[in-house]
Every structure is written in structure tokens, then in C-alpha cells.
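Job type: complex structure
Entries:
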Amino acid sequence: MANKVIDKALEWLEDRTGLVKPFIHMMLHPVPGKSTWAYVFGTAIMTSFIVQLASGVALSTLYVPSGSQAWESIKWITEQVPFGSWLRATHYFGASAMIIFVGAHAIRTYLFGSFKFPRELNWISGVFLLFLTVAIAFTGQVLRWDQTAVWTIAVGAEQALRAPFVGPMLVRVLCSGDNVSSASLSHFFAMHVFIFPALLVALIGFHVWLVLHHGISEPPKAGKIVKRETYREEYQELLKKEGVAFWPHAAWRDAVFSTLVVLGICACALYFGPPVIENPPDPSLINAEPKPDWYLTWYFALLALVPAQFEDWFILLFPVFLVVGMLTPPFISNTGERSARRRPWAVAIVVVVVGSVLALWQEGVNEYWTPRFEATPVPKTAIGTTDSDIEKGAKVFNDRGCLYCHVISGHGGRRGPDLTDVGERLSPDQITIRIVNGGVNMPAYAGNMSAEELKQVTKFLESRRPHGLKTGPSTHLLKGTVPVDLRPEQVIDSSEVSGSPAQKLPKLDLAPAEIARIAAIAQDGMTEVRLGKLAESKASDPEVKKLASLMVTEHSAANEQLKELAAGVGLILPPDINNEQKALIDSLSELSGSDFDKRYVEVLMDAHMHAITVFETEVREGSGSLKDWAKNVLRTIKRHHHAAMTLSK
Amino acid sequence: MCCSDEQPKEEPKVAINWSTVLISRTEFLKLVSVVCSGFIGMIVAIPAIGFAFEYFLVPSREDWIKVGELEKFEPGKTVAVVFRDTTGLPWDGDCAKRTAWLRRVDEGNFEAFAVNCTHLGCPVRWEAGAELFMCPCHGGVYYSDGSVAGGPPPRPLHRYPTRIAKGQVEIKVGPVLTEG
């Protein structure tokens, strides 16, 4: 009886809407019988998205997208409103689930070759869905409107600013104005709750329509080739032979897996709770450490690790590379083998990409490039002595921020080298020079430390010898250069400055940046002479030989001048070239004949190209006699560069 | 799956046949419909887009902002000064607050730096002990004069122009990040 009523009602509905039959047709459409658990990720995304829609719409009923009130409204939602904390937590973990399963779904379809003919547009719409998912997650993070959110916009803007020509325009789009303000929040709100969800729903509709239109791709078999002419027929035959109705023979797996997903979201929500709303969105509070949510940690790490000279290009081109890279598979091979067993490159790409993201993610969690402001001082037990100078040196090490970047006996940051056993590796002179002149990522402490402190901290570092070793002959490395540079009144001796312990080293009346620059120039100069001498003996082309001796003479002369000038202003120059430069010389000395000539000229060109920028900076920003010297030498450098360039042709 | 093999000869087309648009009633009606739809679309879209991107229609502003009395600042010391962004919205609340680093170089000279690291815009901290600005994000370091001391930053910290007017220190602030 009841069945009859329902049947009648459905019949009427079909007659008046025409929707019942297509619905039934859709539910019962045949799918390849052997589709397995690998096919459940798509519905997992849908399910998470439904969680997002429900929790998101609910949250929007109390959330206030106003610069002054958003933070408070979230606090209120979290602390005062029934289900508020729960909804926020599920909204966060629902987003996480979406991201995870979008990734899993992309990997599955890629490895199964499902993007091949005729499903190219399934893949392409899927790629846009992936980026849209990241975009919606990112805009959602901003809506938390806490300290991290406002700085996240600043970080995004600073990256956008690197784009040529349109940089400032992009910044205005990102901030919705000249600065982070309530307008930024409102614009992010509109994107997060209206624009992106609308696009997402439309694209999901298109994506699902394509899945139904072409049918779910059958599990690949090694050796079974996709051919444009025959694929559709073969697929239909397969469905006839071993197809099963989607409902319920495939749908049950989706239902079960989606239930697990929802349970997982709930479990995380229960266990971890909603993301913590920490400090208020007050950009004047600068003790902020903005970090993206977990799914972008790997990218954050990448930005920290990419070498500075490529950074501009990287920031601009990497996102383009990601989008283009993701879009290419169907354009590169949309026929042929689908099975991963016959597509080693596809497997390799997945392994490399997943491995890299995980490795970067790990790096991003550790964040060794960050100064550890909260590092605990090296304790007395680790100092291991009661020598008052050493103890004072340890205090300098703690107070002057050395600790933020260097570990000693487990205390401190990891931005720079571990100094636990530095006394066994470096001589006191080398330690002093490094502190005064700085290094690649290390500031030159010349202007920031008194002579007294420098002496103490050097003593402290020198005493870092956990294995009881002494530095080897390198202690004498500085002989010959040091006496010239360390003129009597600058020799670091506390007796001379004991009257005024806070006084800075008297000799350094130079901007710290210039000290570092001149030190680098000196090392470059020494490298040129050494390279030149090597080339004088090894080059085969007489022209190259001639150029090499020119390098030796002219750079030696320039080096001598620089040494004198440096001594005049009381600057300690590095006694020797750095390890990178040594490695370069070693690598060259292994070559011979025309290989050597070619490489030497290349090195000359690169080095002088680089030198031109450095010298130009010195001419622009330098001071006194050093600046004049740089102006003179710059002409020589340009001449050298030109000569090398002419030879290279 | 797809279409029937044979197509009827005079199947109606959606697209306009431009060669007959002024002589064929059908083609002309298509044109009328397209023009009307486009008109509606424009009427709806132009104000909406203009409103959403209104900030392109308003010129950027720079203002001299008082950050404190001259006597308050000790020579040789770098301190944080907090001020309000004058270009914001009335309901901005705390998110219109800004900080700059201000250093009194000597009696009459001040240097003011943006807090944004030139690497990725994170707020740099003045570490008085080390006399360095340090960035918590990727370890950028700057000397007290704002020049790069280490790490990834490509440029020195941005400087705001400073002046002293009627015993007050003022800094000139424009768009915080767009100084390039």
C-alpha cells in the first residue's frame, strides 16, 4: 500500500519535473566492476566539503567581518556559544581533510592514468579545483583575524611586490587598499564565503558531470593501451561484460569511507579543538611569528631555503610552474599506457614530489633558519670553568644575541654553525675575524661589540673544546697578514680600553655593511690572483695565458692598495679566501687543456660580473678612501670583464 | 554516446549569422537578445566591480604623523613607536595601529624604519643586546642603520622620512608595503 503511494507520487513527480528518471539513471549507471577502494577519494572530498558548507554557513551567522570586531566575535563564538568551539574545530579539520583528499585524489588519478583520453578535462577541471581549495583554505585562515592573519597578508603582499611592473598593483588587490585594514578583511570574507564557494560548487558540478559523461575510468591494466579510435568502444564493452550499478555496488565503499572521514574530522575536532586564536590583530604588536597553516608549511620552508640570488624569480615563477606543471599531463600523453607499472616516470614524479613536500614540511616544522629568541642561555655547567673572562664571554654570547643562531652544548638556535667544539676547529684569530667581519648570513659585529667583549667572547669560544683538542697549525695561518692589519692600537687588549669597557673598537668608523663588503672584495681579489697564477701555468691558449698574467699583476696591485687602505681605517681583512673559493680553485685545477681555458674564462666572466655590482655598491654607498679606491678599480674590473667576454667568443 | 550521424539541412544555429543580421528576422532577434543581455550584464557588473576595486580609484596618501615629543627619545637608542594609520576605515579598530622603529641618531637626527622585513614582510625585532634587527620568519638580520647584516633580505629596511616640528618628532608614512 505504502509502496503504491510512493510509486504514484514518483510518477507524478517525473511527469511534472522530468527529474526522477535522470536521477535513477544516474544512481544506477554502470561502473567497472573492479573499481576498488582507490576510487573513494573523490567522494571523501565532497563529504568534507559538505562539512565545510554546514559548519561555515553556521559560523557566518555570528561572525562579524569587521577589523575591530572579528577577533572578538570569534572569541565569543569559541567561548560562549553552544557548539561554537565544535563548529570552528570541524571547519578547520574539514578544510584539512579537503586538502589531504584533494592531494590523494590527484595522485590516484595521475598514477592510474585516468587523465588520459577522453578524460582530459576531468583532470584540468580537477587541477583548478585543487588550487581553488587551497585558495579557499588560505582566505579562511585570514578570517581568523588574529595576529598571524594580519601578518599573513603582509607576507603575501611582500611576495606580490616582487612582481615586475604590476607588483604595487597586486599589493593593493591583496590588501584591498594601501594597507592591511578592515577592508582587507571584508574582501577576504567575500572571497571566502561567496566567490570561491560559488566557483567551487560550479566547478564541482562540471567535474562530476564529466565523470558521469565519460564514466569512471576502469582500473588500469599493464599492456592495455588507450587509443583514441577504440577506447570508447572498449570501455562500453567492459561495462557490458563486468559493469555493476553504481548504487549500491560502488557507492557503499564511498559511503563507508566518507563515514570514516567524518569520524576522523570529529575525532580531530574533539582531540585538538579549534585552532587557537592567540594575539589580537594589532599590527603594532611586533612580536609576531606569522606562519601559514600546516598545508603551506612546506612552501614556507622552500622560501626560507631557496638561495637569495634566485629568490625573486622563484617567488614569481614557482606558483606559475606549479599550475602549468599540474596542467601538463593530459597535454603530454593522453594516450598509451595507463598502468603505473609501465609509467616509471610518473611514479618517479609522484615519489619525488611527495618526498620533497614531506622533507620541506619537516624543515618547516623545525625552522632551523629562524633565530631562536626564546633560547635558554648556556648554563654554568656547560661553560665548565670559573675563569672570569670565559664566564663573561659566555654572558656576552648570551646577551649579544649570538645564542639566537648558534648552539653551544644544546643551548641556542640553529641558524648558524654549532659552536660546541669551535675551539677545536678555529684558532682565536679566526674566531675574532669571523665575529668582527661577519659571514654569509652572520652580521659583522665590529660596530656592535666593545673590544673587551670581543676578547671575552673569543676566549669563551676558544675554550669550547669538549674533546680536549687544540687547533692545529691553522693557528699560524694569520701570520704575515695579521701584524699588518692589527696595528698596535687595535690589537685587542683589554688593558687599553679598561677605562671605558663599553667603548667600541676604536678603529671601525665604517658602516657594518661596508665592512662586510670590503672583506668580500678582499677575498675576491685574493681569489683572482690565485686563479691567475694557476692559469698562468695551466692554460693552453696563449691569449688566455696573457689574460691570466694581467689578472695576477693588476689584482695583486689592487689587493696591496686595499690592504694599506684597510690598515689606515683600522679594518681587519680576512687572511685567506673562503672555502667556496678554495673549492672553485680545486675544481679548476683538475681540468686541463681547452677545458681549463674555457672554464677559466667563464669563471672570470662570472666573478667580474659579480664584482661589478659589488664595486658599484661600494661606489654608491661606501665612504672615504675605500670608496675612491673602488671607483678606480671598478674601471679595471670592467676592462677585465670585457677582455674575458671577448675571449669567450 | 554523442550526436546523431545525420544532421537536418537547415538546423537552427545559436550563433548569429552576421552576413544576414540586417535582413533576416531570426538573426536580427538574436542580435537584439545578445545586446540586451550584454547591457544588463554591464549595468550589473560595472558598479559591482568598481566598488570591489574602489581602492584603485582613490589616490594613495602620505601623511606626516607625530610619534612623540623630542625629549622622550634618547640619542643612540632604537625604540618602537606606535601610531595609527590615517588612511584606514572608521571601524578598523586595532588593525589600523602601526609600529615603526625610531632611532635618535644624535641631537637633531632621527632615523625611522618600517618594521617589515624586506624579505617577506614579517615584523623585525630590535634586539637591543645584539644591536641588530632580527626577523623571526627566515632569520633576516639588519644593522642598527637598517642595512642588511645577514640572511635572505634583498634590501635594507625601508626608511620613513623624519622631521622635527614644534618639539614633536614626525615621520612621513605612505602605503606601508608598497615602497618597493
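Summary: The CA atoms of residues 134 and 141 of chain B lie 5 Å apart. The longest strand of chain B covers residues 97-104.
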